[in-house]
Amino acid sequence: MTGTIIENLSGRKLAVLVTFLLLCQLTCFLIGGLVAPMPANAQMMIATVCKDTTTVKNDTTKWFYNRGKGACQNIGLENLHHDLSETDFVFAFQMPLPRENMILDYSRWQQNLIGVLQIDIKYHSLMEIQPRSVITIDARMAYRNKGDPEEQWRLYTRSVEKRNLDCDIEIKSEHHLYNCSAMPLFELGSLFHDYYLLNIRLPVETPDMNSHIGHIHDMSLIVINQNGGFTKVWVSLKSVFFPSIVAILVWFWRRIHMLQRKPVLLEKMLLSLGLALCLLNMPLEYLTLYFDLPFMLLLGDIRQGIFYSMLFSFWLVFAGEHMLIQDTSTQSSLKQYWRHLSAVATGCASLFIFDMCERGMQLRNPFYSIWVTDIGTNLALTFIILAGISTGIYFLFLCYMIWQVFINISHKRQSLPTMCSVRRLHYEGIIYRFKFLMLATLLCAALTIIGFTLGQVAEGQWKWDENIELEYTSAFFTGVYGMWNIYIFALLVLYAPSHKQWPAVEDTSDTQNLSEEIEFTPLQERSSEISSLTSFLKKATID
Amino acid sequence: MASSSVFRFLVLLAALIWILADEKNVTRERKRSPINGSWFNMGLMEFEKWSNQSGIFTERSRLCARIRGLTPGQRRVCRRHKDHMPVVSDGVKKGIGECQYQFQGRRWNCTVMGETVFGPLTFIASRETAFTHAITAAGVSVAVSRACRDGRLTSCGCGTGPRPRNLHSDWVWGGCGDDLEYGYKFTEGFVDIREREGKVKRGSREQGRQLMNRHNNEAGRRAVIAKSRVTCKCHGVSGSCSLITCWQQLASFREIGDYLRDRYEGATEVKVSRRGKLRLRNPRYSLPTAQDLVYLEESPNYCVKNESLGSLGTSGRECNRTSLGLDGCSLLCCGRGYNTKRIMMKERCQCKFHWCCHVKCNTCVKSTELYTCK
């Protein structure tokens, strides 16, 4: 005899709840906009060209850096001496740069470090870059911690990498620079140490190696790290959301167990959606402050992937459960949705494989990139296109199902006038609330997409002299994150089984209503205690 | 009684005018004196030699007193930022070099004349002066930004406020500001301070000159920002563009030079109004923006040699016989005709390069004709 809470909730209570949730949403948005700094920060550094006079170039204990005790001998690339050979050059980047007369160091709050290499090549009529040139880079990375002696750099990782040079030039005249696109160099999943050092050499072991890359004028490295302030705000949001979602899940599960029946598919789906959100909310970032966990980037991707795949599957099942095309006598199960869900599964699987190929490989070698080789590029593109296609198919399915639900509802609505007025009003209310939740879902999705697009446009036109007080990108992130949390919170609350009995709701109404309640009861019981909207629709089909 | 007071008043007025006029003469004399010169001569200094001396950037070193051409205000900035001075010098050097590249083959070719760098030409508020101010400001701005990026300057800005109280936690919290901004602001502080010092009469020629210099310096600094490129990197979930970070990439100085030369061609002539503002000389033209160059006076005739104006004349300059442009013999020689000389030239040709240092060239001997203006 029970329905879900949304059906039994009075309009006033619903309004209070919705207002409260909207206020939470606004808070999330404002926290991102006013408190948090932008999510990531880029620092650009120009290479110091060091002279390597040692005969053994393979020595990974010898490091070149430009600041502190034991700094290297600096040479300019402008006027080269002929007694130097290619192997005598080392491009050194010491991270982070000093600022305001202070030696800065990385904090573990800054989470990760991404390096992008930018090579400036001077035009030389005798040394034009050929299209699709490949540059071979011998990259070595070292780290040092606070308190270590200034010359004690320890090897972090080392790799010889190939990258494609993608350069063009407008005015072909001497001293003009090629416009080369930046190439991703490395991605560190954890920023555990205090100082990092990158030494780059351009080896010429075979005659063809690095012979078509022109005259290098400058090399600069852009290091991008997450901002500590953003991490702090993010983690605190998680620390608030995680317990509240766990609490509401426990409450939801207890409510279901208090019923005599077994949980239906929709409830199971809601529960797993809640669990996926809990997994996403778990503030694991605290661990990175004490342990070196390079897999955090990958784990974050996987957690997000699981959550979104659960959300997508939930929408499908949600729409399907209100469609009632299938046989009403059987308990619906996940098997009925295998065709629809396979689209989600394919999309997620291909994205997962792509992520494992890129970020998974980067656990072993931070300099790894899948986009360098032709096979890798094709493979990556295949997986991404596959994921795109399955997303497209999924949305087609979803739109079709939602359309059918609405058609069904409007059909059934035509039979409403034959009912008595109180009951009709009640059912109209339920349909209205179902539509309302549908609308909320659409609104959330639309807001995410609009926010994302605006962010892309805003970032594209980024210039430093625009002083914007509101940190838009952070606001978008915290806003969207909060929105989905609140959305699922609302679902868990509103779709939990209600303890209110039908008559209790109708207590204030007239006696005529009670008699109709008795008429209605057998049907309600037969349809095994699921949401009264579905039962109502089922009743109409049976009729 | 009345006439005597009028007379007394007139005498006082005359005395006042005389004193003012005299003061003006004095200031002009001082400005023209070669000792004070221009700060541009920092570009001629050899800081590399100095940097071998230890303790040059320490508190007690007399570095700033040894740089000639600085105003008291600039000297103050210098004392606060001693380590910036080699970088500034480098920037000015770059600016002068670029000026010479952009104006090679023109009647005025940005010749460096001794300690004041551009000689008496500096005193004429012409288009060329406007360009020199812009290109040096741009040069310093670029040099400072670059020095921030290679870690040579340790005092580059970080926080967005005037000076963060606890830099380390500020940096962890929100990262550092842009180096381009620091370069811009430092240049503004160091270069424009000249034009704010010294009392000048509102609406006078001197004030006009100050306004013009400030406008052109600003145009030079803005050119650096206008030509910088924004590059972005996506690093969101699975490397998607849900998270995107952008940075400013400095353009090559040649590009900035090209841009500023275009501004030079389209420079606007202005005059100073009585209220002390710059006004268009010809109201039919459109107003100059902050990126445009402005000038107050017509350029002198660069065809003929005039020592007092700083014009070297074009006789003896090399010209291009076939060109119809400004470097062509007819225009460059101002119609005086040219001399032809046949010479043999040794050239490096058929060079083969490796990425840095292996250059294998053949030497070719070419005979060419050299044309010089009469």
TrEMBL record, chain A:
Domain (Wntless-like transmembrane) spans: 227-499
Q: What is the superkingdom listed in this entry's lineage? A: Eukaryota
Q: Which InterPro entries match?
A: WLS-like_TM, WLS_GOLD, Wntless
What keywords tag this UniProt record?
A: Cell projection, Developmental protein, Endosome, Golgi apparatus, Membrane, Postsynaptic cell membrane, Segmentation polarity protein, Synapse, Transmembrane, Transmembrane helix, Wnt signaling pathway
Asked if the Swiss-Prot or TrEMBL record annotates the protein with the keyword Transmembrane, the reply is yes
Offer one Pfam family short name for this entry: WLS_GOLD
How does the record classify its membrane topology?
Multi-pass membrane protein
Q: Which residues form the Wntless GOLD domain?
A: 48-226
Give the molecular function GO annotations. Wnt-protein binding
Which positions carry the signal peptide feature in this UniProt record?
Answer: none
One GO biological process term: segment polarity determination
Q: How does the annotation summarize its subunit structure? A: Interacts with wg; in the Golgi. Interacts with Vps35, a component of the retromer complex; wls stability is regulated by Vps35.
What family does this chain come from, according to its entry? Belongs to the wntless family.
**Function field:** A segment polarity gene required for wingless (wg)-dependent patterning processes, acting in both wg-sending cells and wg-target cells. In non-neuronal cells wls directs wg secretion. The wls traffic loop encompasses the Golgi, the cell surface, an endocytic compartment and a retrograde route leading back to the Golgi, and involves clathrin-mediated endocytosis and the retromer complex (a conserved protein complex consisting of Vps35 and Vps26). In neuronal cells (the larval motorneuron NMJ), the wg signal moves across the synapse via the release of wls-containing exosome-like vesicles.
Instruction: List the protein's name.
Output: Protein wntless
Q: Which organism is it from?
A: Bombyx mori
Automatic annotation (TrEMBL), chain B:
Q: Which CDD domains match?
A: Wnt_Wnt5
Q: What is its main location?
A: secreted
One Pfam match, by short name? wnt
- Keyword terms of this UniProt record: Developmental protein, Disulfide bond, Extracellular matrix, Glycoprotein, Lipoprotein, Secreted, Signal, Wnt signaling pathway
A GO BP term, please?
muscle organ development
Domain of life where this protein originates = Eukaryota
- For whether the record's keyword set contains Transmembrane, the answer is no
Q: Where in the cell is it found?
A: Secreted, Extracellular space, Extracellular matrix
Flavoprotein as a keyword? no
**Any stretches that span the bilayer, and where are they?**
none
GO terms for cellular component? extracellular space
Write down the SMART domains for this protein, in alphabetical order.
Answer: WNT1 (SM00097)
Q: Report the GO molecular function annotations.
A: cytokine activity; frizzled binding
Q: Where does the signal peptide begin and end?
A: 1-21
Family membership, please give it. Answer: Belongs to the Wnt family.
Q: Relate the protein's function as given in its record.
A: Ligand for members of the frizzled family of seven transmembrane receptors.
Q: What is this protein called?
A: Protein Wnt
